[in-house]
From TrEMBL, chain A:
PANTHER family: GLUTAREDOXIN FAMILY MEMBER, GLUTAREDOXIN-RELATED PROTEIN 5, MITOCHONDRIAL. GO terms for molecular function: 2 iron, 2 sulfur cluster binding; metal ion binding. This is Glutaredoxin-related protein 5, mitochondrial. Residues 51-118 form the Glutaredoxin domain. It comes from the Eukaryota. GO terms for cellular component: mitochondrial matrix. Pfam families: Glutaredoxin. Signal peptide: none annotated. Keywords: 2Fe-2S, Iron, Iron-sulfur, Metal-binding, Redox-active center.
UniProtKB/TrEMBL annotation, chain B:
SUPFAM superfamilies: BolA-like. This is BolA domain-containing protein. GO terms for cellular component: mitochondrion. Belongs to the BolA/IbaG family. Pfam families: BolA.
Length: 155, 139
């Protein structure tokens, strides 16, 4: 049930945000490489698999509620991490910036089907709720687990 | 006391339905950018500050994470992702800049974009996914 994911009265993490030394080092390293973009590399990445996700953290341990929601929705539809490609933007500051200019979309997570930008968390939630996600998966040759479950019920 | 309740309500402004959560300067500017947008012409608008639910400094006064509910006839026949692109375009200046914390721009923008009919059918805005701690490294 998606509602339990979005229960904002769930306990809040009392954590302080402070930049770590390693993340400061990573940013300085990435700006020393091309000041241009890695759009060409991203163009390859989005075509490397039927479903490609750019997120914060990894599917086993998302570092952001919106990224987590995307992973969970994909899971509802039967897509496990071994089936799609996930890229952690927290590991690469250049990627984190350039993915936004590549798709002309300002936030992470970002989901691609067959190289085409589908949307972020909100879009995926909406598509999951209105049945569009099942259709979009069908178009790329993936049968949603929810569809399979519905069909089983009918039999 | 009743007087302090009245004063705090007055401070929130006449359009308190238009906001939820801490209503700072960024929330007000987001509201006015969307309200005055000729591409969007919203019939209903609500700016919800969700920063308090995230791992940010001084979270009760932060303006880092927002949810926007926007109802507009302009969304009729437009796909979800393209509705969001329209809103992103109007709010581009708030979303640009460094993605790292504290350096200009908001961290997250959640968008609920509906046509007036869709809003009539379900006049409710769901909460956003709970924070997963962000970039804080765990030891």
């Amino acid at each position: 049930n998606l509602r339990c994911l979005f229960n904002t009265t769930a306990s809040l993490r009392q954590c302080k945000l402070s930049p770590t030394l390693s993340s400061l080092l990573t940013s300085s390293l990435s700006t020393s490489s091309t000041t241009g973009s890695m759009h060409d590399k991203i163009a390859e990445m989005v075509k490397a698999n039927k479903v490609v996700v750019f997120m914060k953290g990894v599917p086993e341990e998302p570092r952001c509620g919106f990224s987590n929601a995307v992973i969970k929705i994909l899971e509802f539809h039967g897509l496990k991490p071994d089936v799609y490609s996930a890229h952690n933007v927290l590991d690469n500051e250049q990627l984190r910036q350039d993915i936004k200019t590549f798709s002309d979309w300002p936030t992470i997570p970002q989901v691609y089907f067959n190289g085409e930008f589908i949307g972020g968390c909100d879009v995926l939630i909406k598509m999951h709720q209105n049945g569009e996600l099942i259709e979009e998966l069908k178009k790329i040759g993936i049968k949603s687990a929810l569809l399979a479950a519905q069909e089983e019920k009918k039999e | 006391s009743r007087i302090s309740l009245f004063i705090s309500a007055a401070r929130r402004g006449l359009c308190s339905d238009a906001f939820a959560g801490y209503q700072g300067p960024i929330a007000c500017r987001i509201q006015s950018s969307l309200q005055s947008s000729s591409e969007l012409r919203p019939t209903h608008l609500k700016i919800i500050n969700e920063s308090a639910g995230h791992a940010v400094a001084d979270r009760h006064r932060a303006e880092t994470h927002f949810k926007v509910l926007i109802v507009s006839n302009q969304f009729d026949g437009v796909s979800v992702v393209n509705r969001h692109r329209l809103v992103n375009k109007v709010l581009a200046s708030y979303l640009g800049g460094s993605s790292s914390s504290g350096r200009g721009g908001i961290h997250a923008l959640s968008i609920d974009a509906r046509t007036p009919d869709e809003w009539l059918k379900e006049a409710e805005v769901s909460g956003s996914p709970p924070c997963m701690g962000g970039e804080r490294k765990q030891n």
